[in-house]
Amino acid sequence: MASDNDSWVLVTGASSGFGEEFARQYAAKGHSLILVARRLDKLQTLAESLRGTYGVNVLVEQVDLSDIDAIGRLHSQLLDQGIAVDVLINNAGHGLQGPFLDAPLDAMMGMVQLDIASLTAMTRLFGQDMRQRGRGKILLVASLLAHYGVQDMAVYGAAKAYVLRLGDALHREFKQDGVTVTSLCPGISDTGFAEAAKQKITFALKLLMMKPEPVVRAGIRALQAGRISVVPGWANKSAVAMIWATPRWIHQAIIARLMNS
């Protein structure tokens, strides 16, 4: 199928949540898509819907992104097909709520592998291609919790802090090569993430929950504008502002209460 826009957008974790919404919004803009995730059936269903609705090219790639070798193979396969990724949406990741010492070690390390190591590998491989072409855009999906040390979500918050700080550094480092790097820091959102992470949804979190559409729209706009990062939603922006306005012990206590009661 012919696309109105010949640029390719690669979305990781595209089978649900933010990834699916990124795919829909970029398809609506006429971009060709590469959808990457482990769940092939969901990817194929989404691809058929996007082709039928928007008439865009959609490639489906079933990849376990926690496997760094598999990421290398994906990169090589796309190069062999002559496909240049113009926009990389580094969305794949997962979380886990619970006391640090009670979490299974394999689950904890799997989260570190996907949220940190795999994102770093994707950014390195496709970022190098963009530098050689002198253009490209990379969105790193971090989290509002990247700004906090979060009781009972210690590893997840720390992993997303890595993503945010990596994005901050690469924004400046890649800019000289014509490549934009932007970090998106969403708060609690209606994506199914909380259920998968076994996260407790408190009354306060229900009030703060955002739909994925405006979150993704904010991320795309920030990336297009060349911003270093974006926190979608006024409540989430206020939560970040509180960090600079209060001592650490105060805002740490507030976020812990918000998340757990």
TrEMBL record:
InterPro entries: NAD(P)-bd_dom_sf, Sc_DH/Rdtase_CS, SDR_fam. The lineage of its organism: Bacteria, Pseudomonadati, Pseudomonadota, Betaproteobacteria, Burkholderiales. Belongs to the short-chain dehydrogenases/reductases (SDR) family. It comes from Paraburkholderia graminis (strain ATCC 700544 / DSM 17151 / LMG 18924 / NCIMB 13744 / C4D1M). Signal peptide: none annotated. SUPFAM superfamilies: NAD(P)-binding Rossmann-fold domains. This is Short-chain dehydrogenase/reductase SDR. One of its GO terms (cellular component) is membrane. Keywords: Oxidoreductase. PANTHER family: DEHYDROGENASE/REDUCTASE SDR FAMILY MEMBER 7B, SHORT-CHAIN DEHYDROGENASE-RELATED. One of its GO terms (molecular function) is oxidoreductase activity.
